[in-house]
Amino acid sequence: MDLLLNRCSFVFRQLRKEQTPIRAVNIKEIFNEIVSFLNTIDNQSNGLNVIAIVCNELASVNTLKIFDDPVIIKHPLIIIIGRTFEMLLTKWNYEKQINMEEVDQNCLYETSYLIAYLCLYRNGKRIGFYTNEINEISYQKIFLTTSFFDKVARLIKDLSNNEYEPYSVKYKVADRLVRLCRKLNESDVNLDSVIDATIECLSSRHYLTVFQNIDLKQPTFNPKQSFFIRECSDFIIKYTFKQQHKVSYNLSKIMLEYNKLIFKKHLPVTLEGEVLGNCDRNCVTNREPKGARMNAIGCHIKLLNYFALLPSIRNDFIPTAEATNHIIDKILDILSTNSLIESIMNNQQAFHVDVSVISYSITLLYNLVFHRQLFSILKANKRLLDICLRLQMVKDRSIHFVAQTLSKILVDQTNIDDIKQPRRIAKAYLYYIENTVDEPTQTHHGIKLDGVFTNLTTIIQNDEVKNTIAEDEEGLQLIAKCAYDEKFDHTSIQLPALDVVWSVIFTGSGHKAVKSEVTDISIPVSRSSSSLSQPVDLEFEENGHQTQSVTVDKHDDADHEEQKYSLKLRKKAVEVLNDDEQFMKHVTKLSTSRNIKEERTANGILWRLSNEKAFIRQKQEEEKKEKQRQQQRRETPKTKFVESEAIYQYVNGDYRWNLSESKPIHGLTISYSYNNKELCYKIYNTLQKSKFYRVWIGKENVYGSLPKVMAEKIENSRIVLICMSTGYRASQSCQAEAEYAWKRDQSIIPLIVERDYNPSGWLKAIIGDRKSIDFTQIDFDASYLELINEIDKTVASDSN
């Protein structure tokens, strides 16, 4: 036996070398010798010892692809290892009837290590070099049978009912196997029995016991604590998203009861290393490393987050009238701890224990704030807003993201341009989208993807947020994927993703050069330094031909550079989306949807991507032809009219009509947000009563008119009335209307229809220095009279 083991050890050491002469055929020979030895040996202990040593050696060879070879995978030794493991696991499940020797425990430990390693890291599908046929044989198919999972479930269930020494091999093996199950693809295996057993573990008294027994000086978890506190919780969070209601219903109330005892015991010594309990003055402040204790609290709060994701379970977090030191108060205590805040200010590692605890704590409050009653409780607590403002300064992007979003929810921020650090928060949103789109749970760090999009549809109106997302080509592609991929919920993810895309392609709105952008202009970036002392003429070109020239003074140079950059981002975003065939196919399909919201959003996107440009070019061609016809009429000689030679003669009493005496009818378009429909309809109805105005306003639905209909109405109008409000600023349809009128040089009269509203962002850029008429500060008749005067002035100015 020693000779065989020495030979095995030599070959396996050779495998660890980068340039090894060992091939699959050599491994096969060694495996054949081991199988032959096992078939002839009389002493079972020796056989188990050989298997344990071989498994230990093989699991340590963790960088080689030689184990992917079908010759190795299908070798009888691999089958023997799997059957030995199941035999030992069965024996251990009946430990009261069958004695488990030390050699048995050691072999079970080593075989579980190798099995977990092979199933996780040497389990890829192999494709034939010449045939392209997929070889479906894998370690998972060999080891992870229904019988395997049933035996694992029995082991876990045993640990929920019986207590063993903290460093027992049982906890080590169970910890490893639960971790293996957590990393498997759910579509490949059925883990229902393991899930049920794990729920029993978490709801058992042992979960609370392991918390109570954490030593104050303990730096890391022992095997028992690791199994109950970390692995069982992580497995439930990862694998039960489809059964989340059932699991949360069974566990949440128990965990919240346990939480009272856990926080009571550990928070006093965790927060800032303060004096334990009610120590007297001779008691020494605990300055020991937080270690296992802080890790345990982080894992527990992470599990509470899992429950808080469900609206129905959030009711369990509502404090009762007689409750003192409620969980919300305790979480706020954690978030207010100066030593923790100082620690996370200097650390941003994902696995740093202080970062983890603060991150899961603030995320728990974020998830609870979506419950109406809990929102009122949290909003009334002045500490929370101060905490959020402080946490916005930390390095960790998850904490910053949640703190920023939560503070926005709490203060009901209406001015979207007041967002602090908009570029950083936009990158955080992209980070969460990237880390959730491929997750089966569509959750990352306690934040669900639908919640990310719910908030993103609001802050996307910030110009810097738009620019940041437009800059990130991969991020924009991910958002587009969320809009069309069928695995995402249509209402909570796909439609909000479409809204985000619609907003992003408005990047650069309100800039001077946008008017020329519709003809595919390109603005030269380079400029000699000597030219900055004089006004600069910038040539706009299309296909090599000059189209127009704009003079830019040196004082406007920085603003012009920003305009050029924004236009560049818009063009890039349009290219990315136009190149995404699946996205374009999906949007085109939605453009004929019976759902008005879907139809308007899809048509709005298509309008921005291509239809608007084509429509404007068509109108420009029509205008060009009309000018040519007018020029021809002017150049054609006119016959002088002599009244005395006319075939008719005026007689006394004839009246000669003077057409100049009648006032012309002016076409007006009212662009408004449906949120302000009452006041805007009043303006419309009053204008309609006058015989001098032909007024158009879209009344058909809350989502605005079809883009082409809107454009035609603006083309046929002399003046566009823009009814400014918060809702107007946030609406893509309104932005499309305002920008189209602005691009086409239509006369614009801005109206304020929301009290104390000041235009910002793209709306302010389009309105410029035009005088606004406020319909909210003075009586309606006075405002209406001011509007009529402004219309007359505009018409007179246009005529001149």
UniProtKB/TrEMBL annotation:
Domain of life: Eukaryota
Signal peptide: none
SUPFAM superfamilies reported for this sequence: Toll/Interleukin receptor TIR domain
Gene3D superfamilies hit by this protein: Toll/interleukin-1 receptor homology (TIR) domain
Location of the TIR domain: 669-785
Span list, region Disordered: 540-560, 619-638
Pfam families: TIR_2
GO biological process, one term: signal transduction
PANTHER family in alphabetical order: ARMADILLO-TYPE FOLD-RELATED (PTHR46270), TIR DOMAIN-CONTAINING PROTEIN (PTHR46270:SF2)
Protein name: TIR domain-containing protein
Organism from which the protein derives: Didymodactylos carnosus
